[in-house]
Amino acid sequence: MDTKLQKIINLYKKDLQKFIEKNALNADYYADIEERINEKISLLENPTRDDIKNILSEIGSPEEIFREELESRVIEKVAIKKKWYQKFLASDHVIFLGIFKELSEKTSISAGIYRLAYLFLFFIGIVTKASILIPVLIFSYILGFLILRTGIFRFLFSLGISFFLLVFLGLCSIVFGLYLSDFSFGNMFVFMNMPILLPVGLVIGIFSLVVLLVFFVHYAFTGKTLGWKFFMTGFITFIIAGICGAAFVFNMTNRYMPYTEMTIAVSSDIDAEKNNLDEPITFRNWDFVNTFQSNKDSRSEKLSPQFSWYQQINFFPLNPLNSSYASSFYYIGQFEPSDDDKIHIEVTKRTFGNAEIQEFSQKFFTDFSLKIENNRVQFVAITNPEGKYPLMFGNFSANKVRVPLNVRFQVWGMPGITDLINFDNYEKVSELDEHMQYAIASQCTMLYFGNDRQLHCDTNEIEQIRQMIQTWEIIDDTPHYSREVEKIRQMIQAAESSENMQLTH
Question: Does 208 score more than 90 pLDDT?
Fold first, then answer.
């Protein structure tokens, strides 16, 4: 026989032998079929390729030959009574509320996989003693029943998710629109030099949100999903967008986490012609008057007051109106007498950002000065209205304030004053006990450094406060004064009560 024909026969025999071994069939079957093949070939004088193929086709493929026997094996297995774990893993079997069977029908994933995952998490909760995990699993199971097997809950749940997706989509779309428009505050461009992660993450995120929104809206009104693949497309792209977002946040953290500090010394003469020295110079902690005054023109605009317990002027953004930045001051513990007729202030400028941001900051601030306007002391940071700048964060804080001798100044909302005021200038100082001095000092606002370089309270104000405390009369009928009088009264009563208790013991 031709070698090529023999090769065809040998290949068939090889496949037959493998099939018998794989399915654990009787080895005698191979010998019988081999004998039939040899018998049929021996009847041919000069067998051709077609003759060999016809013989093998007549005998049939291994699958065809043993189909009946293999099917009988399956029938025998089905006939065997299912064990409990077989029922547990079956997708068509309802257990308890039937949540995982419902999920199996909707996602085409076996219910057994959901059940095993649920039990695994339950086991983890018990072993790790995670007190929150088990209640969450139980609650999720009940919630799943309400959502999947009760129509109204499915509708409300899907609409609820759709609402949050829509809000998130709107925010992402707005940010992306601002990015494309190169949005800016004056000459400060919010998205300047931002990493490519931002637009990429926004595009992917918008796509994922649209897909998920369509999925849940469709499910809410029809009760049918658009398929597992459709949902996974939205979910996977959402995860990718989240990864981009996390990487962007990490990048921005590294960009703005470093900071530098520099000390700025400024001073100003007290111009008697421009300022009424019968009125005190004012330093206010809470009245941060943000006066924007361009170094190109004289335009100014006042913004709403801000409050800071930390006695510092925060700037963000630095220059939205192409202007200078002015603010009033600070903390009484930082006040000292001046050696001349000027007010001197040392200010620390802290700027957050890497080397690139610091370089922009140096170009942005062109000068610093101190001015007294309407008896209010203001620190002015002159900024450059030209050019483009990225977002910059930072603050100015006063380290030391020096005031000329015998110049009255006013301080509001400043802690630490009670330990600094000297009452030697008050002729009735002998009549003030410790508690009365503390109460007066806490209310005093008209201060000055005397020739002794000590901090004093204006004697008229001392007398006024003293009378108010002694008579419990409200000198000023404003709510602020009323509250302050009540605070002083309670403070003194508490101090006297404490002393009496000590004497009794």
Answer: yes
Q: Quick one: 118 and 246 in the same domain?
A: no
Q: 256 and 393 in contact (C-beta within 8 Å)? A: yes
pLDDT for res 169: 92
Helix/strand/coil (H, E, C) string of 393-435? Answer: EEEEEEEEEEECCCCCEEEECCCCHHHCEECCCCCCHHHCCHH
The β-bridge partners of 269 are: 342
Whether the Cβ atoms of residue 225 and residue 215 lie closer than 8 Å to each other: yes
**Same domain (yes/no): 270, 389:** yes
What is the distance between the alpha carbons of residues 307 and 388, in angstroms, rounded to a whole number? Answer: 29
Give the integer Cα–Cα distance in Å for 326 and 320.
14
**What pLDDT does 480 receive?**
44
- Residues 337, 271 share a domain: yes
Same domain, 393 and 306: yes
Encoded amino acid at 10, one letter: N
**The length of the chain, given as a count of residues:** 505
d(CA 60, CA 15): 12
Segment 73-94, tens digit of pLDDT: 666 555 444 555 566 666 666 7
Judge whether 260 and 350 are in contact, CB under 8 Å.
yes
Residue 327, phi then psi, degrees to nearest 5: -155, 155
Are residues 291 and 356 located together in one domain of the fold?
Answer: yes
E strand segments, 221-340: 259-269, 281-284, 291-293, 300-302, 312-315, 325-327, 335-337
Q: What is the pLDDT of residue 382?
A: 75
Return mean pLDDT, the chain. 75
- Report d(CA 377, CA 246) in Å as an integer: 44
The DSSP code sequence of 326-350 is EE----GGGEEE-SSSEEEEEEEEE
Q: Which domain holds residue 115?
A: 84-148
Give 486 or 382, the one with higher predicted confidence: 382
| pLDDT tier for residue 384 given thresholds of 50, 70 and 90 | confident
Mean pLDDT within 446-470: 86
**CA 300/CA 292 separation, integer angstroms:** 5
